[in-house]
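Researcher: We're teaching a course module on how sequence relates to structure. For the next exercise, students receive a sequence and then see the predicted structure as C-alpha cells, so they can try to spot secondary structure elements on their own. Here is the exercise chain.
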Amino acid sequence: MLELVPLLGGGAAIILSLFLAYYLSRKPRGNKKMEEISDYIHKGALAFLKEEYKIIAVFVIVISILLLLLSHYTDIPYETSIAFIVGAFFSALAGNIGMRIATKANARAAQASRKGILDGLMIAFSSGAVMGMAVVGLGLLGVATFYVVYGGRAAGILFGFGFGASSIALFARVGGGIYTKSADIGADLVGKVEEGIPEDDPRNPAVIADNVGDNVGDVAGMGADLFESYVDSIISAISLGALVSYAYSQIYPLLIAAVGIFSSMIAMVFVRSKNPYAALRNGLFGAAILFIIFAFITTYMLNKEYGLFYSIVVGLIDGLIIGISTEYFTSHQRKPARKIAEAAKRGAATNILEGMSVGMISTAIPIISTAIAMVIAHEFANFYGVALAAVGMLSTLGISLATDCYGPVADNAAGISEMAELGEEIRRRTEELDAVGNTTAAMGKGFAIGSAAITALALIFTFFEKATRLLEKTNPNYHLNISLTNPYLMAGLFMGAMLPFIFSALTLGAVGRTAEKMVDEVRRQFKEYKILEGKGKPDYEQCIRIATKGALKEMVLPSLLAVIVPIAMGIWKIEALIGLLAGSTATGFLLAIFLANAGGAWDNAKKYIEEGNLGGKGSFAHKSAVVGDTVGDPCKDTAGPSLNILIKLMSIVSLVFLPLFIKLVH
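Model: And here is the predicted structure for the students to work with:
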C-alpha cells in the first residue's frame, strides 16, 4: 500500500503541471507585435531542441545497445538498458514541456504586466511551476514505477535510469549554455558596447537568438539538470537503503520525495505579496516549513528512527544556506555586486578583477556548509544519512525550480516589452520582474550546484559500498585500498581534480568560438543592411542558425568526456576510479560555485548601473560593466552549471559499469 504514495505524488504533480499549462493557455498574449516576437522565440527554441535531440537519440541508441551486450558478459542487469532509455526520455520530456510553456508565457507575462507587476509575476511563476511540477512528477513517477515492478532488484536497475537522465542533462546544459551565451555575447558586444543601443532593441540581429537562448539554457537545461539531481539522490538512497537495517529503508526516500511534492504544491498559495521577491521567498520558505512538519510525521509513523529525519533536515538547511549565500554574493542590492559596479568606474579590468575576487570568496560558505552537513548526516545514519541529506535538499524542488524558471520568462517579457514598444511604465515593471529573476536564477544555480555536490558524495559512497560487497562475493582475496598511500588512488585523485578545469576550458572555448561568429554576423548585418539608419531589417534567422550550429557541434566532446574517462579509469583500477570521483567532485564543486557566483555578480553589477547609478546606461562605468558581464555570461550559464552535471554523471556511470570493473579485477 505504501508503494502507491510516491505514485500518487508523482501523478498529482503531473496533473497540476497540465492544469497550469491549460490556465496559461487561456491568458491573452497581447497585440500582434508581441505575438510575432513570442512566436519567433518559440519556433527558434523548438528548432534547436529538435536538432539537439537528433544527436542525443544516436547517443541513447548506442549506449542502450552497449548495455545490452554487456549484460550477457557481466552482472549488469539487462533491464538497465530499458531504465536508461526511460530515464533519458523522461528527462527530455520534462525539459521539453517546460520550455514549450515558457516560450508561450513570455508575451502573456508582458501583457499581464500592463495590469500590474503582480499580475506579470503570477504568469511567469505559473510558467515556472509547470516545469517544476513536470520535473518532480516525472522523476518520482519513473523511479517509483521501477521500484514497484522490480522490488529488491530495482536498486541496481535504477542506476540505468539515472544514467539516462544524467546524459540528457549534460547535453542539454552544455548545448543550451553554448547557444545562449554565444547569442548573448554577440548581442551585447556589438549592440550595447559598439553601437550603444538598448539591450533588447529589435534592430539588433542577435536579439531573438538571445531570447531563445534564455529558454534552451535556463529552462530546458536547468530542468534536465535538476531532474537528474532529483532522481539520482533518490536512487542513491534506495540503493544504500538495501544495505542498512532500518525499517522501510528502501521505500522511505520515495515517501519523503512524495511529501516534498505535496509541500511544494500547498506552498504555491503563499506566493502572494506586493513585493515580487518577497512573494517568491514566501513560497520557498513556506514549502520548507511544511516539508519539515510532514517529513517528521512520516518518520514517526513508519519507523521512529529520528536520525533519518535529522539527516533530511540537515540537507534541506544546507540547501537554504547555499541559496541565501548565493543571493548575498550576487544580488545587485548587496555589497559585493555594488563593489564590482564601483570598480567599473576605473575600467573593465578592475571590474573583472573585483568580480573574480567575489566569486572566489563566495565558495567559503557553500563548501563549509556542505562539509558540515555531510558529517552531521553521516553521524546520524552513516552513508545512508548522506544520501537522505541529498533527498532532503531536493525535497522542495517543485517550487524552487518554479522560482528559478520564472527568471527566463521574466527576462523574455522584459525583452518583448522593449521590442513591442509597450511604453516606459510597462518596461519598468518587466525590468523589475527581470531583476528579481536574475537573483532567483543565481540562487537556483547555487542550489543546483550544492545539490549536485551532496548527490555526488552520496553516489561515491554508494559506489564504494557496492564495490566492497561485490568484491567480497566474487573475489574475497582482493581488498579495496583507499589509503592516501595508494599510488593508484592518488593518481586518480590528481586526474579527477584536473578534469573540471579541462571540461571548463572546452565549454568556455566553445562559447568563445561560436560568439566570434555571432559578433562577425551582427557587425556584417549592421554594415550591409544599414539597419541603424532605418534602411534595412535584421535577419534574425541567420543568427539563430549560427548559435544552433555552433552549440550542436561544440557540445559533443565535453559530453563524451564525462562518460569515457570514468569507464577507462575503472577498467584500469577501481581505486584509481574512486580517486577520480573524489578529486573531480571537490574541484568541480569549488569551480562551479566560483564561476556561477562571479558571473551572477558581474551581471547584477551591470544591472545596478543600468538602474541609474554611477552614471547609468551609456556611461563609462556601464560599458566597463557590460564587458565584465560578457566575461561572466559563459561562466555562470555554461561552464559553471555544466560542472555539477559532470560530477554526478561520472559517479552514476561508474555505478552502472561497476560489474564490468569487478569482472576485470585480478
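Model: If you want an answer key for the exercise: The chain has 20 helices and no strands. The two ends are 45 Å apart (CA to CA).
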